[in-house]
Write a structure and sequence with these properties.
This is RNA polymerase subunit sigma-70. The protein is an all-alpha fold and about 70 residues long. It is about 65% helix and about 0% strand. The protein has one domain. The longest helix is centred in the middle third of the chain and has 28 residues. The termini are far apart.
């Protein structure tokens, strides 16, 4: 797998940015699934926020529809 640290990359800046955008979408999907599973397992918004490096308020605002 190619990382953003590849200094000899043949990618253009546009290709690199598109790849980063794809990663961000994938991470967002993974995070939503993980939050849903955590809530179903009984974790609080505060616990989830702590694990993801943010506040319970931010987690609740972002994922309140998840559970």
């Amino acid at each position: 797998m190619r990382t953003g640290l590849d200094s000899g990359s043949d990618e253009t800046p546009i290709e690199q940015l598109a790849r980063v955008a794809d990663w961000r979408r994938e991470i967002a999907r993974e995070e939503e699934v993980a939050v849903r599973r955590a809530r179903l397992a009984g974790l609080s918004w505060a616990e989830i926020g702590t694990l993801l490096g943010t506040t319970k308020q931010a987690m609740h605002k972002k994922y309140r529809r998840v559970g």
